[in-house]
Each structure stands twice: as structure tokens, then as C-alpha cells.
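Appendix B, example 12.
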Amino acid sequence: MSMVFVEYKIAESRREGYLAWAGKLQEDPRVEVYEGEGQPNLFVEMWRGLPGAAVEGFHAVREGRSPQPDLPQPWRELPSFVEGGMPKIRIWAFRKVK
């Protein structure tokens, strides 16, 4: 299982819509969304307990490939909120050290 961090800055004009979207996204118990302190509109999603297929799904969407079925459907809407779209979304995946 992995932990994935997704970081991006949203457009100020899309903030209200984004916050509503983020609220729906957090209905998935695997994700928490945080906003930067002192950095308005900079957000990080923390995804926990993801299988390898889901991690690959994040990268597939980021690279413009067909998304994997394990990727949460709401996440596919994210680029519409981000300043600069998909190229400005940064994704890091980590696995626990044994």
C-alpha cells in the first residue's frame, strides 16, 4: 500500500467551486485535503492505503493516458480548478519503509 501526495494551486476565481468539489472528494475515507497556511489556494491531497493500480491511475491521468478504474471518479475533474491545468499538478507516491 502507498501514500500519495497531490499538490496544486487553484485559481482564485474557482475557489468556491473547488471547495465544494473537495468536500465531495473527502467523502472517500482514503483522502484528506489541506490548504497551505499563509499560501491561499495552495492545496495538498493526502491519499492513504492505495494499491499500486490506484497510484498508476493518478499518473495516467497526469500524463494524459486513459485513467485506471481504481482512480476516484471525482479526481478526474481536478484540472478544471488548477491554475495551468494538468501540467501544474504535482504527484508524489511513497511506500512505508520496512
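The first strand starts at residue 2 and ends at 9. DSSP finds two helices and four strands in the chain.
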